[in-house]
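#struct-pred
JK: can someone run the complex with adenosine-5'-triphosphate? inputs below
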Amino acid sequence: MRKGLTLVYTGNGKGKTTAALGLALRAIGHGQRVFMIQFMKGSAEYGEIQAAQYLPHFTLVQKGLPTFVKKGDPGREDLRLAREGLELARQVIQAGEHELVILDEVNVAVDYGLLKAEDVLELIEIKPEGVTLVLTGRYASDKIMEKADMVSEVKDIKHHYRQGIPSQPGIEY
Ligand code: ATP
Ligand code: MG
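RT: done, structure tokens with the ligand placed:
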């Protein structure tokens, strides 16, 4: 019997979004349907956007701008897109037609004041039994981690970025 869970990937190291994408691949292998919403991202450069067209049952929607959000002073468009993403997440979760729903960088959207922690807590609340919800991003709120079934913290020990190696296709994006 499949039981839907709430999974959080947080921490300051690299691998949260890619962990969620790994879960997506695994779920697709079981014939499950996956819906991923990327908050604060708006660039078709990401390999996962390109890969989505080759994968069955995988929908990926970006709800952000290609530019960085200013912490403490988000733009109107940043706020609007984040709210749109939240509304879309609510609809998809409630409909229960996707076994796996991934809200990528949603923790950052909360930390940056684009969304409220309560908004995300409500999504966990309304989630049908069979739906697994994945919440990624640094600085996950304590309230969200408390409510989740699993929390993994990716810890930065070393990053090639600090050797001056710029973002690599297939690794960073
Ligand atoms: P990825 O998308 O590669 O799985 P992530 O989701 O864990 O990484 P984010 O916190 O969302 O990482 O950061 C996005 C980008 O910042 C990625 O390109 C990642 O390589 C880079 N990054 C993540 N952690 C670090 C770090 N500790 N130092 C420098 N850059 C980092
Ligand atoms: Mg990420």
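RT: quick notes.
The chain is about 35% helix and 20% strand.
The longest helix spans residues 76-95.
JK: thanks, will look after standup
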